[in-house]
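Lab channel / #folding
Pinned by the channel admin:
"Please post every new chain as: sequence first, then the structure tokens as a reply. Keep commentary short and put observations after the output so the thread stays searchable."

First post following the new format, from NK:
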Amino acid sequence: MQAVEIMNQLAGKHGVGRIDLVEDRLVGIKSREIYEAPGAIALINAHEELENLTMERDVNRFKRGVESRWADLVYEGLWFSELKSALDAFIDHTQRHVSGEIRLKLQAGHASVTGRRSDQSLYDYNLATYDSDDSFDSSLAKGFIELWSMPSKLSAKRHGIEK
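Reply from TO:
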């Protein structure tokens, strides 16, 4: 809780976390809501960047959908539901290796990530560069692209969209 309070002060000074939206209440009524959550927004941005650095792509993508459903359940007052408990377990599992340091720039209503590092990082500079001495064998890409695109090429051909 102390992190949120500190970030409320720091991010709030820069106008971070002002949320103005029209939302759908559980009973179907649309309402305009205005929130201020500077610390939460800044910390969420930082945490999501750590997740991008330390979690596999498919897990990270799936988790975004889980987060949305989790938030709906909480908003609807279903805190003790079986589904929320199951989603909690999934989220807890995904967070096992999410740790590190994030540098944020707080300015003009934004909390922008300007640096990141983690001992659990899945980023490997030697695989991600395009230098001649990188460790990724780019000759493998041609075969992968052919295999990966095969189903869509077949579908296009069957539907007369072939170029």
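NK: The radius of gyration is 21 Å.
TO: also worth noting, The domain at 2-120 is CATH 3.90.1260.10 (Argininosuccinate synthetase, chain A, domain 2).
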